[in-house]
Amino acid sequence: MTAVDRCSESTRDWVCNAIRLIEADANRSADTHLLSFPLPAQWNVELYLKDESTHPTGSLKHRLARSLFLYALCNGWIVEGTPVIEASSGSTAVSEAYFARMLGLPFIAVMPSTTSAEKVELIERQGGACHFIDEPSQIYEESRRLAAKLDGHFIDQFTNAERATDWRGNNNIAESIFDQMAWETHPEPLWIVVGAGTGGTSATIGRYVRYRRLHTRLAVVDPENSVFFDAWRDDEPDLTSCAGSRIEGIGRPRVEPSFIGEVIDRMIKVPDAASLATIRTVERVLGRRVGGSTGTNLWGAFQLVAEMKADGCAGSVVTLLCDGGERYAHTYFDDAWLAAHDLDLAPYQRVLETFLTTGDWLY
């Protein structure tokens, strides 16, 4: 489409209506719940889960997808008929396919061939198409190639996540957390714990905490085969890896442009088996299944709770319930899949059972 076409009255009308549709969808949606995780009262520590699975597309990435579409529309990158391309391991693509269908746009998700069948089905159910690659490190170049070939727009969550979200407020996830914590016993959490996929969520929360002059600290958990932890610890922003993360939605083989390490107070490396042991252990506590990235979050949150208890420090910790476990029935909750990936959960389950019983972190 030419520059003249992009400035035409009909194009402006289409973009205005597209933004209206997205804003109307947000206006129809209630905020996500903040759930209290049961811990013994004598510990004097409260743990909360921000349940992002209640979004219309079932995950934390719904917020990101909305912001990315608004950002692209307002920058003039998406107009009527523009094919939208994304590099995604699943949940972002599910949410973006939802918004693309709302606007009548074609959507293609470029993803590793190992992505769970449940997520592929969810993307296709939203009207999106899936384009698989075998080498995770090629996901970016393949997305750019497809966008150029189709005269489309590579929406690029990994670059634009921290730019597209208004970190000062506008009902972002940080503002929502603190609003919902207002009437709790310890309304200003000592820690907020999140994972990093794009880095957008940690950037938003870290900036918001500083902007509001809060004393809350930000901990970021990182799974195996991800470079965020090592790059942050060693101050090596150019660090890369050839492996892809087994915990879908978090962990990257490179430090993404949206990852702002300077706003992070602490990082915790979490073994994949620990993440998956956590989701199986807490299923009994919550009465529901959660996804692998929630397990990573909770493993880190439990460690911080144990440290607070050991130090006699009363307060609260907040983390995210990123998506539901039904998306991983044939992977994380499948014993055969665990055996095929040589994942032994037993040592980590013992750590968790000790923690949930005594509050001690013996790892």
Order of helices and strands: HHEEHEHEHEHEHHEHEHEHHEHH
Based on CA atoms alone, the radius of gyration comes out at 20 Å
Number of helices: 14
Classify the secondary structure makeup into a structural class. Answer: alpha/beta
| Quaternary organisation of the protein chains | single chain
In whole angstroms, the N-to-C terminal distance is 58 Å
Unreliable stretches (pLDDT < 50, length at least 5) are none
Q: What is the CATH topology of the largest domain? A: Rossmann fold
Mean pLDDT: 93
**Which CATH C-level class of the largest domain is it?**
Alpha Beta
Strand order of the largest sheet: 1-2-10-7-8-9
Please count the beta strands (DSSP E, at least 2 residues each).
Answer: 10
The assigned CATH architecture of the largest domain is 3-Layer(aba) Sandwich
The total tally of domains equals 2
Could you estimate the helical fraction of the residues in percent? Answer: 40-55%
Shape: globular
What does this structure look like?
The chain is of the alpha/beta class. It has helices spanning 3-6, 9-28, 61-74, 91-103, 117-125, 139-150, 157-164, 173-180, 200-211, 228-234, 272-286, 292-310, 335-340, 346-358; strands at 33-37, 45-51, 84-87, 107-112, 129-133, 153-154, 191-195, 217-223, 266-270, 315-321. The protein has two domains: 27-56 and 168-358, Rossmann fold, CATH 3.40.50.1100; 61-161, Rossmann fold, CATH 3.40.50.1100. Helix content is 44%, strand content 15%. The strands form two sheets. Strands 1-2-10-7-8-9 form a six-stranded mixed β-sheet, with helices on both faces. Strands 5-4-3-6 form a four-stranded parallel β-sheet, sandwiched between helices. Helix 4 packs parallel to helix 5 and helix 7 (157-164) packs parallel to helix 9 (200-211). The radius of gyration is 20 Å and the shape is globular. The termini are far apart.
